[in-house]
């Protein structure tokens, strides 16, 4: 069995003052025909990074509007995550010296996780490249495609993907019923098979990270760090890595 992530309940009604009655009512209306549909979101980690942050809000809201939604993560060792970090970087344009051993390690862990995939769903959403081959291995194990619609959700920019790595990933992604990208520019023209969709990432305005802070609290924090609140501030809030381009900000 894969690892389940605990869900903290959320209520769509709490967003009504922020997004308005029309949007909230539309969500209820769209969700109604899919009431009780079993939906699995599967990714590589329960915390850290944008995907986990999105799912922390998105999955409980799906449950709140009537879906039977779950969030699970794959099981893997540190060696797998070192390899998939290199894959992630190379798909965003940073060259990686990809070896057959790295390739086999990625596939081996996906094969193991496919063997632990023991339930069926109406919809399965696989996030990013780390667990993408699971569907292909399930097809091998079961002698055909498993039930439900399988969706690959790509959260990264594939514009300048390293050709060698994309060529390895593409056959596995092509097995999906649909693929979702953040922007049209991030799609790959040679991806044939899945229906393609555009969906910007969700930002939860009720997440503590996005909440408004009282002015007096802000001023106290700045003064504590000896920052003059009268001076203009330019800040980048992000991980310190090349994809956030800190030097470009400076």
In short:
By secondary structure, this protein is of the alpha/beta class. Helix content is about 40%, strand content about 15%.
What report would you give on this structure?
The protein is built from 9 helices and 7 strands. It is an alpha/beta fold. Strands 1-3-2-4-5-6-7 form a 7-stranded mixed β-sheet, covered by helices on one side. The termini are far apart.
Q: What percent of the residues sit in helical stretches (DSSP H or I)?
A: 25-40%
What's the tally of helices? 9
CATH architecture of the largest domain: 3-Layer(aba) Sandwich
Shape category: globular
> What is the number of independent domains?
2
Q: Could you state the CATH homologous superfamily of the largest domain? A: Glycogen Phosphorylase B
Structural category: alpha/beta
What strand order characterises the main sheet? 1-3-2-4-5-6-7
Strand content: 5-15%
Q: What separation lies between the terminal Cα atoms? A: 46 Å
